[in-house]
């Protein structure tokens, strides 16, 4: 690389310095010549050509008045700092692994001490990267897929791995440039040194100047010793820092990102695409401007995003010019002749400075304005409180209680870690009081003895709707370990204060951080829509108290329906609810579920394990206790919902056709993985990461109870025994659809029973089955004697039909097939491959039900009347075997039991073969196979 003539002449004044610079150049030049940035495929040009352009720009920036006062050391440091400032972008895979594995040891620097080691820096970055939100992930990688661990073998690095490593190196490239200057280029073996030991001080200074381009010039200059800031080692370091940063900024012309490359390849990272387009938008940079100290940048942005990006970049350059000139004046302004040091520009102008004029002159295909969603806090509260939550004051209590509980958990976490000492507190952690005792307006008070808040936290997070302190760096530092939260926090979205206004239009907050003294407490009041809030100092215990005057309407609702604001379900931290009028009444906590990692031996709760969750518990205790489904979902101790059906499809999918009444579910989720909606009243996804584990354990529970009930039947397998004894004892088994008071049918064979799981039914190789809708009045099938099983190989009584028209219509539709959405009579057996059907039903029911709006005539006409039995008829379709049963006897029994009819299904010979070779067995069939070792459960002899 040919050095600019003026800089080259400076360096040649000292032969030793010239030799040192040439040696460094001889090493850097081949390293950067081919621009092999293995972790920065999508970056704009940072090759040797770019370095040469920065040097040329630097030479052009230095004013004529400055050159006489520059030395050979100045020329060397300018050249070396330019060579170094972006060299980290060229690091190899071997070099990167030597950094994070601790094999690269940097020599000490005169200017920077006690830095975090590279392996720890990498671990810290990975911890943060695993928490990138979707917007950040998409900006860096073009997709929102989670971060994957980096493989130890460089050959296994994917493109996304390289982008992630590139982001890490980009953040620390200035530091690495400094370390390369004094310790050499990291690689597979020992580092490749850029200079001999005698020039170590020169390389340290050059590296520090290169490093300074990524930080504030004022802070960089302040590191230099006060009496050496102007001239340090015969070098005007502050001036060179200024020249480097401005020269690097001004390398923004379009040749650094040739447009044809964008047409030939697609950039994955939206950030990279934006940077390339900004560079491409620059048409010319010149000083042909009315202002002799200004540089003019002519731009032709292709979009509003590029326009705004260029405006921001030009503002940054102007800001850098202003700060650099200010520092230069402070350092050299009163010291002739160094006061002559300066660069040729003070200002940067552009044709996009005035958006209106740009629009008028260029007529671009976009409006050059910043259109975006903005938050105006006063209006936001008014617009969102009711639409988000509705008129539900109990939601406001939940949000405030969960924040109070979180604060107490954080307090305990800080105490365990030794960051604070134990604090004086009430016997209860959180106290919720509905106060109606003083004759004035009622008031709700939520007081906790947790960590409290500083004024900074109040300003940045509590009053900033949507900003959660629990996503801040400070919180993560105190309450995270190895990327995992050590607190089961319930608040997630930063909208607790918003929900508080559901209780009343004004709130009063008093708080003190656990890290502050008693005199550092603060208090303030704010109304919904407040523009300004006055905060005053006060005295208070560590923790927070929120007071909300409530209306008579809200008070009446909270008194009448106290269960509505009973959200908390753990014993610790403790939450006490009080209704205070003339006396104090302590309100009962309805649910108290086991703690995380607690012993479940003496309880009716069961545990499943899933990666990423601290604990997952489930139980039918509520169903057994109250005799009705009460499938609550609790996350980190706070109720999410009751009777939630969202998880049912996911569990059913894993179970097969053994559907289950949803159990009560308790999730301990420190990292916020469990998918809860913004209102926190429902699970927002139809699957979870632990649905397989839950389905397996649920299957074990159901199968074990079924086996126990069946093996304790009276001797002899009869439909009556099975229907009346086995089925009522299997809590939780239910068909798809309405689960209330229904349980999955059980197939009765001549030798035993088979649960209605498709995999088990295939394995049993059944060829036909009789479906008998049990009469709802007695929960029995039409056939309760041994006679039916004498001619039916397999028999099942499904939950019955009523005499209503819709009930009978649904059963008839199911019997024809293809109408699974209307009921569950035959849906359990469709996966077996039904090849033929027979339906025995009264002819008067056919006349009534095969009508428009009920059973379509076109569907019923698929069947033919096989046998006319007077009041009854036997209809058939598909492939059916010869008839062997005594139809007269069957009709007589159907008439006796006032039954609707029966359906017979026939299956093909290959139904035992799985439909797809790669399909997985259901969770229930896996467990059943382990417990029974056969599809049919046979009754054991008692003798």
Automatic annotation (TrEMBL):
Residue ranges occupied by any HD-CE domain in the UniProt entry: 40-323
Gene3D superfamilies assigned: Histidine kinase-like ATPase, C-terminal domain
Domain of life: Bacteria
Signal peptide: none
Keywords: ATP-binding, Chaperone, Nucleotide-binding
Pfam families named among the record's database cross-references: HATPase_c_3, HD-CE
SUPFAM superfamilies, sorted: ATPase domain of HSP90 chaperone/DNA topoisomerase II/histidine kinase
Keyword Nucleotide-binding attributed: yes
Family from the record: Belongs to the heat shock protein 90 family.
Protein name: Histidine kinase-, DNA gyrase B-, and HSP90-like ATPase
Protein's organism: Pseudomonas kilonensis
High-level lineage: Bacteria, Pseudomonadati, Pseudomonadota, Gammaproteobacteria, Pseudomonadales
């Amino acid at each position: 690389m040919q050095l600019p003539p003026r800089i080259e002449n400076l360096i040649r004044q000292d032969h030793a310095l010239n030799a040192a610079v040439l040696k460094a150049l001889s090493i850097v030049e081949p390293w950067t010549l081919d621009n092999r940035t293995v972790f920065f495929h999508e970056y704009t040009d940072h090759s040797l050509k770019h370095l040469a352009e920065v040097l040329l720009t630097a030479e052009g920036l230095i004013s004529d008045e400055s050159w006489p006062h520059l030395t050979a050391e100045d020329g060397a440091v300018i050249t070396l700092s330019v060579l170094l400032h972006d060299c980290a972008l060229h690091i190899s895979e071997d070099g990167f692994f030597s950094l994070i594995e601790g094999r690269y040891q940097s020599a000490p620097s005169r200017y920077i001490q006690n830095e975090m080691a590279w392996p720890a820096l990498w671990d810290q970055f990975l911890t943060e990267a695993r928490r990138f939100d979707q917007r950040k992930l998409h900006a860096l990688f073009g997709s929102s897929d989670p971060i994957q661990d980096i493989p130890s073998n460089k050959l296994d690095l994917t493109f996304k791995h390289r982008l992630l490593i590139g982001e890490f190196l980009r953040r620390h490239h200035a530091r690495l440039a400094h370390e390369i200057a004094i310790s050499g280029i990291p690689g597979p073996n020992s580092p490749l040194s850029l200079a001999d030991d005698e020039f170590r001080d020169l390389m340290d200074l050059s590296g520090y100047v290169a490093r300074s381009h990524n930080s504030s010039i004022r802070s960089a200059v302040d590191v230099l010793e006060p009496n050496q800031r102007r001239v340090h080692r015969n070098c005007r370091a502050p001036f060179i820092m200024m020249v480097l940063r401005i020269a690097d900024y001004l390398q923004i012309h379009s040749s650094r990102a040739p447009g044809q490359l964008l047409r030939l390849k697609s950039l994955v990272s939206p950030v990279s695409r934006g940077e390339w387009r900004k560079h491409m938008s620059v048409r010319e940079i010149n000083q042909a401007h009315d202002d002799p100290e200004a540089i003019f940048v002519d731009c032709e942005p292709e979009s509003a995003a590029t326009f705004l990006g260029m405006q921001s970049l030009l503002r940054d350059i102007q800001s850098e010019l202003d700060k650099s000139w200010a520092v230069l004046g402070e350092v050299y302004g009163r010291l002739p002749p160094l006061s002559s040091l300066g660069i040729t520009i003070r200002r940067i102008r552009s044709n996009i400075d005035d958006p209106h004029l740009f629009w008028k002159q260029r007529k671009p295909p976009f409006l050059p304005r910043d259109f975006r969603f903005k938050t105006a806090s006063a209006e936001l509260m008014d617009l969102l409180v009711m639409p988000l939550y509705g008129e539900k004051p109990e939601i406001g209590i939940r949000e405030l209680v969960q924040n109070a509980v979180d604060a107490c958990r954080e307090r305990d976490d800080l105490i365990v870690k030794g960051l604070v000492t134990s604090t004086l507190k009430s016997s209860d952690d959180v106290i919720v009081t509905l106060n109606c005792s003083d004759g004035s307006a009622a008031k709700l008070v939520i007081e906790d003895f947790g960590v409290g808040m500083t004024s900074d936290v109040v300003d940045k997070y509590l009053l900033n709707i949507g900003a959660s302190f629990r996503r801040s760096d400070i919180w993560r530092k105190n309450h995270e370990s190895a990327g995992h939260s050590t607190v089961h926090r319930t608040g997630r979205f930063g909208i607790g204060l918003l929900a508080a206004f559901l209780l009343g239009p004004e709130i009063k907050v008093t708080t003190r951080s656990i890290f502050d003294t008693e005199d550092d407490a603060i208090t303030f009041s704010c109304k919904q829509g407040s523009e300004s809030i006055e905060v005053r100092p006060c005295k208070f215990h560590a923790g927070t108290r929120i007071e909300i005057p409530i209306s008579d309407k809200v008070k009446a609702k909270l008194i009448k329906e106290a269960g509505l604001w009973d959200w908390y379900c753990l014993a610790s931290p403790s939450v006490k609810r009080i209704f205070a009028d003339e006396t104090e009444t302590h309100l009962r906590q309805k649910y108290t579920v086991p703690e995380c990692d607690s012993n479940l031996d003496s309880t009716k709760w069961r545990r499943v394990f899933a990666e990423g969750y601290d604990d997952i518990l489930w139980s039918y205790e509520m169903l057994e206790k109250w005799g009705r489904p009460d499938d609550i979902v609790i996350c980190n101790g706070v109720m999410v919902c009751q009777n939630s059906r969202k998880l049912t499809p996911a569990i059913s999918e894993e179970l097969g056709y053994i559907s289950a009444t949803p159990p009560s579910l308790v999730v301990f989720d420190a990292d916020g993985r469990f998918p809860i909606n913004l209102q926190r009243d429902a699970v927002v996804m139809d699957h979870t990461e632990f649905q397989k584990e839950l389905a397996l354990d649920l299957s074990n529970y159901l199968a074990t109870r079924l086996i126990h009930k069946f093996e304790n039947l009276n001797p002899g397998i009869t439909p009556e025994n099975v229907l009346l004894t086995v089925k009522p004892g299997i809590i939780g088994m239910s068909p798809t659809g309405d689960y209330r008071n229904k349980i999955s049918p059980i197939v009765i064979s001549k030798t035993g029973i088979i649960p209605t799981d498709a995999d088990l039914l295939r394995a049993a190789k059944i060829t036909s089955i009789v479906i008998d809708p049990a009469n709802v009045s007695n929960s029995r099938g039409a056939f309760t004697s041994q006679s039916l099983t004498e001619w039916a190989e397999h028999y099942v009584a499904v939950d019955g039909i009523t005499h209503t028209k819709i009930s009978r219509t649904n059963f008839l539709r199911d019997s024809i097939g293809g109408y699974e959405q209307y009921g569950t009579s035959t849906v359990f057996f469709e996966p077996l491959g039904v090849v033929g059907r027979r339906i025995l039903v009264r002819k008067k029911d056919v006349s009534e039900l095969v009508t428009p709006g009920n059973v379509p005539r076109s569907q019923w006409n698929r069947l033919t009347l096989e046998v006319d039995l007077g009041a009854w008829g036997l209809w058939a379709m598909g492939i059916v075997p010869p008839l062997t049963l005594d139809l007269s006897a069957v009709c007589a029994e159907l008439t006796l039991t006032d039954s609707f009819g029966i359906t017979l299904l026939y299956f093909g010979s290959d139904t035992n073969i799985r439909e797809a070779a790669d399909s997985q067995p259901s969770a229930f069939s896996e467990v059943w196979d382990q417990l029974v070792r056969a599809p049919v459960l046979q009754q054991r002899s008692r003798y």
